[in-house]
């Protein structure tokens, strides 16, 4: 989200509620794959190729 959604009324008072940041990509396997993708993108750029996970630019 660009802005986190609002909590439902009363949620902050719950003793059994834990609010955590998004950590879905925090596994060792995912982090290893992310590092390999970065390396592949660098190699692509050094070889004059378009990086495989190029992020498009957006007007400001």
Describe the structure.
With 60 residues, this protein is mainly α. It has a domain at 21-49. Helix content is 32%, strand content 0%. The chain has one helix at 28-46. The longest helix is centred in the middle third of the chain and has 19 residues, at 28-46. The radius of gyration is 19 Å and the shape is elongated.
Brief descriptors of the model:
mainly alpha; 60 residues; elongated
Q: Gyration radius, to the nearest Å?
A: 19 Å
Structural class, from secondary structure content?
A: mainly alpha
Report the principal-axis shape: elongated
List the helices and strands in order: H
How far the N terminus sits from the C terminus, by CA atoms, comes to 18 Å
Helix content: 25-40%
Question: Main sheet, how many strands, which sense, barrel?
Answer: none
Unreliable spans = none
Strand content: under 5%
Rounded mean pLDDT is 85
Task: Please count the helical segments.
Answer: 1
Number of strands: 0
Show the helix and strand layout:
Blueprint lengths: L27 H19 L14
Summarize the structure.
With 60 residues, the chain is mainly alpha-helical. It has one helix and no strands.
């Amino acid at each position: 989200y660009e802005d986190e959604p609002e909590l439902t009324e009363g949620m902050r008072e719950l003793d059994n509620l834990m609010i955590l940041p998004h950590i879905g990509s925090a596994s060792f396997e995912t982090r290893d794959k992310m590092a390999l993708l970065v390396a592949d993108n660098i190699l692509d750029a050094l070889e004059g190729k378009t990086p495989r996970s190029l992020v498009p630019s957006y007007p400001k």
